[in-house]
Amino acid sequence: MLAVYGASCLRHASKWRHLRIAWRRAGINLCSTWIDDKRIENEAHVTPLAFAGAWIQNAKELDQAAALVVYAELDDVLRGAIFEAGYVIGQGKPVILVGRNTGFSSWQYHPLVHTAVNTNAARTTLETWLGREPNAIVEASPGVSQDVVHSEVPGTVEPPTAA
Fold first, then answer.
1. Cβ–Cβ < 8 Å for 35, 20
2. If 88 and its partner were Cys, which of 7, 68, 119, 121 is the partner (CB 3.0–4.6 Å)?
3. Quick check: is 84 in a domain?
C-alpha cells in the first residue's frame, strides 16, 4: 500500500476522512493523523504545546509518506500545507496539488510538483504510480469540480515506491 500524506486547511479534515476510506480501497494509505485530532480543528483554542506535539507527529508521518497531496479551495489561506510541501520536496518526494489556490505560487513549478483538478485526478495519478489501471472509485470533494479527471504528470519524475 502506498503511504500518502494529505495536507490542507484544518477545516477540510472531514474531507480527508472520507477520502481515506475511498483511497484505501485503491491501495492508498492516507497516513495523516491530524485529520482525526479534534483538538486542532479550532486553531484559536490550541496551545503552543499542543501545536508542537502535532507538528512533531506530522513530520514523522511526512517522513514515512511516499508522496504529499495538498488540497485547497480558492479562498483557503494555506500555511502549514506550504511548509509540508517544502518539507517533502526537500526529501525528493513528489507533491500533488489539488484545486486552484493563490498559495500555489512559484513553487508549484518545481519538477516534483504535479497538479490535479480534483481528488479523483490525484487518486488516478497515485494509482498510475502504483503501476496499475485507475480504480473505478469516484469520491466527492465538495467545492472541487468532478467533471474533469485529468492530471498533469511530468515524465521526468520517477513515481514513489510503495512502502
1. yes
2. 68
3. yes
Q: Which three cell numbers stand for residue 108?
A: 508549484
Greatest alpha-carbon span in the chain: 45
- Expressed as residue numbers, the domain containing 131 is 2-152
Q: How many distinct structural domains can be found in the chain?
A: 1
pLDDT in tens, 44-96: 778 899 889 999 999 999 999 999 999 999 999 999 999 999 999 999 999 99
Measure the CA–CA gap between 156 and 130, rounded to whole angstroms.
16
Domain containing 20 — which CATH number? Answer: 3.40.50.450
Average pLDDT over residues 123-142: 68
Q: Give the CA distances from residue 160 to residues 2, 4, 19, 68, in Å, rounded to whole numbers and listed in that order.
A: 8, 10, 20, 11
Whether 130 is covered by a domain: the verdict is yes
* Cell numbers linked to 16: 480527508
- Give per-residue pLDDT as tens, 12-55: 999 999 999 999 988 999 999 999 988 777 777 788 998 899 99
